[in-house]
Automatic annotation (TrEMBL):
InterPro entries from the UniProt entry: RlmJ (IPR007473), SAM-dependent_MTases_sf (IPR029063)
One Pfam family of this chain: RsmJ
Identification of the protein by name: Ribosomal RNA large subunit methyltransferase J
Gene name of the record: rlmJ
Residues that bind S-adenosyl-L-methionine: H19, H42, S109, E127, D152, G153, D174
Gene Ontology biological process terms in this record: methylation
Catalytic reaction equation(s): adenosine(2030) in 23S rRNA + S-adenosyl-L-methionine = N(6)-methyladenosine(2030) in 23S rRNA + S-adenosyl-L-homocysteine + H(+)
Alphabetized UniProt keyword annotations: Methyltransferase, RNA-binding, rRNA processing, S-adenosyl-L-methionine, Transferase
Active-site feature positions: D174
Function noted in UniProt: Specifically methylates the adenine in position 2030 of 23S rRNA.
TM segment ranges: none
Organism: Novacetimonas hansenii (Komagataeibacter hansenii)
Family membership: Belongs to the RlmJ family.
Site (Interaction with substrate rRNA) location in chain: Y4
Leader sequence segment: none
């Protein structure tokens, strides 16, 4: 579907969770000197203006990034965000400062990853919406490390993996979930990505409205014999009303060694800032090694 526009939701609690975790994963890749490649299958526009009519009309970002901008940044303060969250916030503040006055720019996944690339690293983006793709292309017009494809991100998994740019890396999938079969498509894509790029980390974002579709999704992967699957979930309230986005989830296949510990610290901290008493976070091995 090309009807989905991320500008209405940019910077909301789910975006914050996905971007902090994405950044933590890329930070792990940066610990080794050999180059890495990130494939962002559903990249969006890269930068979102939170003062835009779309963003203001929902106001979702105020309960996402808005809450963290107000957080104390002193690391010794007990109320400060966890180091993994603070790393991301430092970039957010820089991007916001970079932009001209009057705009409130929030970096999406490709803009965030691009800032973390070292000279030999690379980022491949896919974005199907023609306008969003043009915006993204323009953003990276001077960046040799970033390529933008106006193609189906799921198709790209077969076409562009394994990456010829590097032997290690990350596949990040963040589909819009507008179609009834998105969970199924994501499950298939995760399996294909692992098959084509066994050394890679494969991460997929999913909405938590109701428990049942999430359970079915994880079971599809389990039943297909997938191993090493870690799930990260942040729910703002018990997921009972299926008309609401009650929580945000990320499944990571082949996560970095001991990433679950880092993920727990991050999610506990996000739960504190983004939740209102009923919030919970869970980091669990759906299937261990
Ligand atoms: N990952 C982005 C970020 O974190 O800033 C946000 C992505 S948004 C949730 C989903 C995006 O996928 C939209 O920009 C939409 O236009 C695009 N899209 C929808 N179907 C697609 C497909 N089959 N392949 C690639 N992009 C697609």
């Amino acid at each position: 579907s090309v009807n989905y526009r991320h500008s209405y939701h940019a910077g909301n609690f789910a975006d914050v969770m996905k971007h902090v975790v994405l950044m933590a994963l890329v930070e792990v890749l940066r610990r080794k000197p050999s180059p890495f490649c990130v494939l962002d299958t559903h990249a969006g526009t890269g930068l979102y203006d939170l003062s835009s009519i779309q963003a203001q009309s929902t106001g979702e970002w105020r309960d996402g990034i808005g809450r963290l901008l107000d957080a104390p940044s002193h690391p010794t303060s007990a109320a400060a965000p966890a180091p993994g969250v603070e790393n991301w916030l430092r970039i957010i503040r820089t991007v916001m400062r970079d932009e001209q006055a009057g705009r409130l720019s929030y970096p999406g996944s490709p803009a965030l990853v691009a800032r973390l690339l070292r000279p030999g690293d690379s980022l491949i983006c896919c974005e199907l919406h023609p306008e969003d793709q043009q915006t993204l292309r323009h953003l990276f017009r001077h960046d040799r490390h970033v390529s933008v494809h106006g193609r189906d991100g799921y198709e790209a998994i077969t076409a562009l993996l394994p990456p010829r740019q590097a032997k290690r890396g990350l596949v990040f999938m963040d589909p819009p979930f507008e179609r009834g079969d998105e969970f199924q498509r994501l499950a298939t894509a995760i399996m294909t990505a692992r098959q084509r790029f066994p050394a890679g980390i494969v991460a997929g974002w999913y909405p938590i409205k109701h428990r049942a579709p999430v359970r079915a999704f994880v079971n599809t992967l389990k039943d297909a014999g997938q191993r090493k699957l870690l799930t990260l979930e942040l729910t703002l309230r018990p997921p009972l009303d299926p008309s609401r986005l009650n929580g945000s989830g990320i499944i990571i296949a082949n996560p970095p060694f001991r990433f679950e510990e880092e993920a727990r610290t991050i999610l506990t901290s996000l739960c504190h800032f983004l939740g209102d008493g009923q919030a919970e976070s869970h980091v669990e091995w759906a299937v261990p090694e």
